[in-house]
Predict the structure.
Amino acid sequence: MPTLRHITLTLLLAVLSMLPISTQANEATWQALKEGGLVILMRHSLAPGIGDPPGFELSECDTQRNLSAQGRSQAEAAGRVLRERAIPIAAVYSSRWCRALDTAELMALGSVEPAPWLDSFFRGWGDQASITQTAQEQIATWQGPGNLLLVTHQVNITALVNSGVGSGEMIVVRPTDNSFQVVGRLNVSGD
C-alpha cells in the first residue's frame, strides 16, 4: 500500500511535469523575439474603469481614463523585462489615448510614434473596420530588423486576434503573407 510520502511525491512530480510546458512556451516566445521580425501587440497597462468619462477629449489627458500607480509600475516593469532579456525593439507605435502613450513612454524602449490606426474604437470612437484593416496591414508588412511594439486597447487586440487580453499583457505575432500568426502571449508585469 502506498505511503503518504509516496502519494505526496507522486502528486508533486505530476504537478511539476505540467509546469515546463508553459515555461517552454514562454521561453520559445522569448527566443523568437530575440531573433526579431515579430510584432508585439500590447494592451495599455492598468487604467481602472471602462471606456472614457463623459467630456472625453483626445488632446486632454485629464478628461480621460488614465493609468493608475499600479499601471505605471506595470509599464515600467514590462520595459525593464524587455531590456533585461535584450529583446530588440526597432519601433514603438501607440494609440493616441493618454493611457496607451503613457504605457509606451514608461517602458522606455525608444521614441514613441502616436498612430491613429491604434486608437480605440470602443463605444464608437472610431471606425472599427478601418482601424482594424490598417493595423492588419501594418502588422503584415513588418519585416524588422528587430520587433515592432504596438501599444493599443483591448477592443483593438480582440478584433485582430479574436482573443481577449489583460491590462499590460502582450500577444506576439509573426507577419505572414498578407496576415499574421500568433506566436505566444506574455504577461511580464507580474499581474
In short: The helical segments are 4-35, 69-84, 98-107, 128-140, 154-161. The CA atoms of residues 149 and 188 lie 14 Å apart. The two ends are 43 Å apart (CA to CA).
